[in-house]
Amino acid sequence: MKRSVFSLFLLVIFLLTLNGMVLAQDDVVKLGFFAPVTGPAAADGESALNSAKLAVEVINEKGGLDGKEVELVEYDDHLDSKQSVSIAQKLTTRDNVVAVVSGSYSGTTRPAATIYQNAKIPMISAYAIHPDIPKTGDYIFQQSFPGPVQGKVGGYMAVDELGAQKIAILYVDNDFGSTLNENFQKYVEEKGAEIVYVDSFGIGEREFNPVLTKINNLQPDLIYVVAYAGEGAAIMRQSVDAGIDAQILGTEGMDSTTQFLQVAGDAAEGLIITTNLNRESEEEQVQDYINRYTQKYGFAPDMVGASTYDGFMLLAHVIREVGTNPADIKNAMYEVENYMTNTGLLYRYTDIGEAIKPVQVQIVKDGEFKYYDKITDMDLIAP
Predict the structure, then answer these.
(1) Could you list the residue range(s) of the whole structural domain that residue 224 is in?
(2) Which pLDDT belongs to residue 117?
(3) I want to staple 123 with a disulfide (CB 3.0 to 4.6 A). Which of 100, 150, 335, 383 is the partner?
(4) For residue 198, what pLDDT is reported?
């Protein structure tokens, strides 16, 4: 008898505890997040995580969502696709998130996207630009413009704006690099420009003197560089050593003050990049984000951080309108029109979740990224 009473007592305690856990979960809105906080892409991972935390902080300061506090459920994917898939399974089956933002690269975001699609949990890819990501399904979105768009706009800048006729290409050998390289080449060749040299390199490569010497001997008008901050800084410094006078046109991977500009130094002067962050934007929210990030973390944000922040703010905008049901969030995403973000005006999403927005063009002057151009031509920016 005593045993039965004791067992009943334990059962009551368990049920009360379980009920308390459920109530605690109901008191918050959980948003998932993953990024390469450690490993070869740790600099981008740190930038993305900083902005994810800042976004949640700002959302909660404004009253949270649905009258509830937002909780960030964060994971480090180590830039490992197996880890990103495992994280996706945890977020969709254990963590009770209503939506997810990827702060990671295409190689880790692509396989994870399938898990979110099958679980019917909306996922926004903050800056991973591979075209297959949104093709995964109707719950998957890209916050930045797709890679083919940036490659095409790069071609437009090279030939139509900068007048290049002889072009050399160096690109990082991954989803990001190959996508931009392919679409850049297609555009410039259709415009009649000659590609005199093409070569690829791995993440972490730092020795470019031999290839830059070859390129210099070919005397191109322009060198198109698809690189991340570390490789990009090495290329810029060594291009000076090689005596290269050609205009260098880069991409969003080099959009970093701490990891690129500070390392490249004076060698970065005159570099032009396609990206999605205009640091001289007159939009108050852009300057508020830049100032608040800088004050909080001690250095200025980059496009990775700005794109991640936008992903969370877009989710907050949609959830405030339709609530926290994942299907409702997904449907509302396709209804978004002319929504101002830190990375430009989001005109709308395509039928497969690709963002249509301007491409920003920045130039390095006096050691800082400055406004150079903004591409709004729909023939160029529409996927």
Answers:
(1) 148-275+362-381
(2) 98
(3) 100
(4) 98
